[in-house]
Write a structure and sequence with these properties.
heterodimer, A: alpha+beta, Aldehyde Oxidoreductase, domain 4, Aldehyde Oxidoreductase, domain 3, 7-stranded mixed beta sheet, 33 strands, B: Uridine Diphospho-n-acetylenolpyruvylglucosamine Reductase, domain 2, 5-stranded antiparallel beta sheet, 11 helices
Chain lengths: 786, 294
């Protein structure tokens, strides 16, 4: 297809926030300093499960510290994640709990003049605990005699008893799965695991809260949704939303770690309200490591296929160890089912998911939200099918993938839409050529210490959670666009950028729509008082949903501006166009073919002001009624050192079908970043717990919780990225998402590459050298024995 | 637990001479500690595993920042930072094992702040500089109010974070004899990621004549309570023609000699399994270098 040409969209430009970020002048939550500000620290439970009997604060108070204990806090149970509709929101926590349910759970807090003083005061709090029995394994947690984390919680406004620590359970069927397996020629089944990965975002979570004289509060949080923070604080502290102002402030990376209102925000707000002074609370890395993690997965997957490779039936059973709080396990299970059924057609399917409480740090969304875990299992088993049927793994994928015109429900059963753009085939074909798929050998052909193998993995993510009908997930955005009196443009939106260039993309969308050069389009500072609701920058929705709302606002403001111009030029507004003139630094309004009938946007806006016609301004709240998949494909070559068990990625091809690509260099960067974390999921990342103490074995210490960096990635010249040539009809200028998709298929591709190298398949990530060497030694012994 | 906030209060001095530093340690009682780059000590203080009442910085003492060749030795002042040693190693290729070690030691921040003396005083069994310095037969110079002494590095490490240095002694410098011609050296480690504490490390210095190993020294890190000088293998290889099978046998001897533990970074079993492989890789690299290749 021929791509449309744009003046700004798709151009590589210098980031507007680049200078402030690389020179250290950007202000993050932890940099906010206010007069009279106190510094807070949180006392955290050393026990995985304990009742807090008493907390004596007298000595800390004698040092001048303001102390906060559970009895100072509202008793209302909340869920920090505010994206599901209320009746699907599980509420199990308070600002400070009376029972600690994992090591590192905050149970009291202090604020003092300096952070060091606060730390000293923390040491003066005298806590009496009553340790309770704890449980760390989800299977043990479901046993009838297991210690119980909760007797009951709230689901919406209804009391929900918790039995056998099961936080929630979902089951979905389409067709008759048993019949499907009977009709299959080959049935394959395996169990897969992925680790409890820490987000490892660069900035630890933090917040500054200032109580206001009117009884309200101002907040500068690490957050992906300022509106959800405001709504929760309003509900918890019973403050009208009109008196709560949450400011958007740049975030130092996220990976989903601030997708909810971080619990430190509620603690800090409570402290500030009690102290009557601004309070700053910034988590240490160790606290952050005990705050959240990725949902680990344990997946049993079964496929039935015909001899020609056509999938007939699929069954997935998963148990998810969610840790001590149910933040969003219900939508997670819906999505895991969605990721499972939407990658390949299967006439008959069955999904069963169980989320289980254990005494560990709570799991929450992390880049992919269950999709990297599901795709790791699905893509591994697709290769097993290819092996069994003696087919090329790419052919099995081409035969079964869900594509153009098909219904798809990636974000769960209530988010159904039809696929209108699809680059799956293009990416497989082009990727195959780039990696040299045709020269890929079978593992039997290899010998020697270092063995290389090539693997493919594909996946997708949804662009947002919009759909024709409102389901269980909230999804819409609000944006305001206005023409300033000099011809520049302001765009105001509560949308957040995690660093991937979401707001940068919005400036390009607005520039393209208004015809004003990019250098004259800026994103305004945003807070909850001055903006309409935006659900969150999550679900790979920033550009597709947030960008669509900005484009609509720009369209409307442009219409008003052209009305003004038509008065001046004395032509019909419908006949006018706007083009950017970089030399003038202006949009130029003109009548095609008519010489002399042109005027700059600045002149029109200024005239409209002088003549008191008004401002060309529009605000739009918009929901996308589609949920298009952004497809991804990775080809990865690994080298396995069979004498040390070390697996090294040596070459990679990463491709995405993101529709029209708005920021090409940043989108390629997303692909590379996703590749890095995906390889980490496959080979390195996990956090485990010492069952005796309930503490992380890394002790919360980042020195012993590693991620891969540029040092472990293939060399730059050995990584190829490309974009499928597609255009999404429902997206702003044809755009879809990229963010989460980028890492969804990587772990599967790595597993397939390792299997191709060794003839030995690993189904339990991470594939640490210790594990690889031990299995390889056993494998060789068995082979020799046979 | 935290590694950001330093809540303890303490006195701090930054003397300009060794004499002054020795006087300060004597005046400030048993909780006084010397500090160099602080990459280890400050973390320990934040974690509250140590609580010095007084810190005496050694970074302003010019004598401790010497870095030069003199009378058959390379003298490295104890307060010389890794990035200086790295820069030196880029110009002077006499000690490739040390250069290898410094290149994979920590990240930019640690190399900028951390010092060679600090690394040896902390005395982690996994200290990357230690095996390299051991195979070059290095010595450490210590000074206290009682006088100066020189110790072979091999006699300096006593246990996990325990050394022959007394609390009131200052390590002034490390002296590395100039290697004989035809000696090649190398260092490698296995770690979880590129910039990390070793799971296991190995250094080799080998003197080569044609295909014959005239002599060699082998040291390993993270395989025992101290950075370990390997005893059996040098004797075994001495004056032998080097073959692949000979090195396999030597690797097995090393696996038998080391006494690793299971910790957060790896397992005892794995360390035993890969020790021989690592030794062979490092030996091969040192051997090639001894032959005049890069």
């Amino acid at each position: 297809m021929v791509r449309k040409t744009y003046s700004t969209i798709g151009r590589t430009t210098r980031r507007k926030d680049g200078v402030s970020k690389v020179t250290g002048r950007e202000i993050f939550a932890s940099d906010v300093v206010l007069p009279q500000m106190l510094h807070a620290r949180v006392l955290r439970s050393p026990y995985p499960h304990a009742r807090v009997v008493s907390i004596a604060t007298a000595e800390a108070e004698a040092m001048g510290a303001v102390c906060l204990t559970p009895s100072d806090c509202p008793a209302w149970l909340y869920n920090e994640r505010q994206v599901s509709i209320p009746e699907k929101t599980y509420r199990d926590r308070t600002v400070l709990p009376e029972t600690a349910r994992h090591v590192g759970e905050g149970i009291a807090a202090v604020a003092a003049k300096t952070e060091a003083l606060a730390e000293q005061a923390l040491g003066q709090l005298a806590v009496t605990y009553e340790p309770l029995p704890s449980v760390f394994d989800p299977w043990e947690a479901m046993a009838p005699e297991a210690p119980r984390l909760y007797k009951d919680i709230f689901l919406g406004d209804v009391v929900l008893p918790i039995e056998r620590n099961i936080a929630c359970f979902r089951e979905m069927r389409e067709g008759e799965v048993e019949q499907g397996f009977r009709e299959s020629d080959v049935v394959v089944e395996q169990e897969f695991r992925t680790g409890r990965v820490y987000h490892h975002q660069m900035e630890t979570k933090g917040v500054v809260c200032r109580p206001e004289p009117d009884g309200g509060i101002s907040v500068w949080p690490t957050a992906q949704s300022i509106h959800n923070v405001r709504q929760l604080l309003g509900r918890i502290f019973n403050i009208p939303l009109s008196k709560i102002n949450v400011h958007r402030i740049p975030i130092g990376g996220s990976f989903g770690s601030s997708i909810q209102m971080n619990t430190c925000i509620a603690i800090c707000a409570a402290l500030a309200l009690k102290a009557g002074r601004p309070v700053r609370l910034v988590l240490t890395r160790e606290e952050d490591l005990y705050d959240h993690c990725k949902y680990p997965s344990l997946i049993r997957l079964k496929f039935g296929v015909k001899k020609d490779g056509a999938i007939v039936a699929g069954e997935m059973t998963t148990v998810v160890d969610i840790g001590a709080h149910n933040i969003q396990a219900y939508p997670l299970l819906g999505c895991m089912a969605g990721w499972f059924v939407s990658l390949y057609r299967m006439p008959h399917m069955h999904f069963q998911g169980t989320a289980v409480y254990t005494n560990k740090a709570p799991a929450c969304a992390m880049q992919g939200y269950g999709n990297p875990q599901v795709s790791f299992a699905v893509e591994s088993l697709i290769d097993v099918i290819a092996e069994r049927l003696n087919m090329d793994p790419i052919d099995v994928r081409l035969k079964n993938y869900v594509g153009l015109g098909e219904t798809f429900w990636g974000q769960g059963p209530t988010v159904r839409s039809v696929i209108r753009s699809c680059g799956v085939e293009e990416m497989l074909q082009k990727g195959k050529d780039l990696i040299g798929w045709e020269s890929r050998n079978r593992p039997e052909a290899r010998s020697g210490r270092f063995r290389r193998g090539i693997g493919v993995g594909r996946s997708f993510h949804t662009s947002g959670t919009g759909a024709p009908m409102s389901g269980e997930v909230i999804d819409y955005s609000t944006a305001l666009v206005k023409f300033n009196e000099d011809g520049s443009v302001d765009c105001l939106t509560p949308l957040m950028c995690h660093g991937g260039g979401t707001l940068e993309a919005l400036t390009k969308i607005v520039s393209e729509e208004t015809g004003v050069p990019l250098s004259k389009v800026e994103i305004s500072p945003a807070d909850t008082r001055s903006t309409g609701y935006d659900v969150c920058t999550h679900a790979t929705r920033g550009v597709y949903c947030g960008g669509a709302s900005a484009r609509r606002a720009a369209q409307q403001a442009r219409g008003i501006l052209l009305q003004f111009a038509s008065r001046i030029l004395e032509v019909n507004p419908e006949a006018l166009k706007i083009r950017p003139d970089e030399d003038l630094g202006q949009g130029v309004i003109y009548l095609e073919g008519a010489k002399g009938k042109s005027i700059t946007v600045g002149e029109v806006a200024k005239t409209a002001q002088i003549k008191s016609w008004g401002t060309a301004i529009a605000v739009v709240s918009h929901r996308q009624v589609n949920c298009p998949p952004c497809f991804v494909t990775n080809f990865i070559e690994v080298e396995v050192d069979t004498e040390t068990g070390r697996i090294r990625p040596v070459r990679a091809v990463a491709a995405v079908d993101a529709g029209t690509v708005i920021n090409p260099d940043l989108a390629a960067g997303q692909l590379e970043g996703g590749l890095c974390r995906g390889i980490g999921l496959a080979l390195l990342e996990d956090t485990d717990y010492d069952p005796r103490s309930g503490a992380l074995t890394c002790g919360g210490n980042i020195t012993d919780c590693k991620i891969f960096t540029a040092l472990e990635m293939p060399l730059t010249e050995d990584v190829a990225t490309f974009f499928a040539e597609t255009e999404e009809p429902s997206g702003p200028f044809g755009a879809k998402g990229v963010g989460e998709a980028a890492n969804n298929c990587t772990a599967g591709a790595v597993a397939n590459a390792v299997a191709n190298a060794l003839g030995l398949r690993f189904t339990d990530a991470p594939m640490l050298p210790e594990k690889v060497l031990a299995r390889w030694t056993d494998y060789l012994r068995e082979k020799r024995g046979a | 637990m935290n590694t950001r906030i330093l809540k303890a209060e303490f006195d701090y001095f930054a003397p300009a001479s060794i004499g002054e530093a020795l006087a300060l340690i004597a005046q400030n009682g048993p909780t006084a500690r010397f500090i160099a780059g602080g990459t280890d000590l400050l973390v320990q203080m934040k974690l509250e595993t140590v609580a010095p009442g007084c810190l005496i910085s050694l970074m302003k003492i010019s004598e401790l920042s010497v870095l030069k060749r003199e009378k058959g030795f390379l003298r490295i002042g104890a307060a010389v930072t890794w990035d200086r040693i790295l820069a030196f190693g880029s110009e002077d290729r006499s000690y490739p094992a040390l250069d290898d070690a410094v290149r994979c030691l920590g990240k930019v921040q640690v190399r900028r702040m951390g010092t060679i003396g600090g690394n040896l005083c902390t005395a982690s069994p996994a200290a990357d500089s230690a095996p390299a310095l051991l195979v070059y037969d290095s010595r450490v110079r210590l000074v206290s109010a009682r006088g100066r002494r020189t110790l072979l590095l091999d006699k300096y490490f006593l246990g996990v974070q325990q050394t022959a240095r007394a609390a009131d002694e200052i390590m002034t410098e490390i002296r590395i004899p100039a290697p004989r011609p035809d000696v090649g050296g190398a260092f490698q480690k296995l770690a979880r990621v590129g910039a990390d504490i070793s799971k296991i490390s190995c250094a080799v210095a080998v003197e080569r004549k044609g295909r014959v190993c005239v002599s060699c020294r082998v040291a390993m890190g993270a395989v025992a309570p101290v950075p370990l000088m390997i005893r059996g293998v040098p004797e075994f290889l001495q004056e032998k023609t080097v073959t692949a099978s000979l090195l396999v046998t030597a690797g097995r001897m090393i696996s038998d000699e080391i006494r690793p533990i299971t910790d957060v970074r790896s397992t005892a079993e794995y360390r035993k399994q890969v020790a021989g492989v690592l030794f062979r890789d490092v030996f091969q690299k040192a051997w090639t270098r001894a032959g005049g290749e890069p």
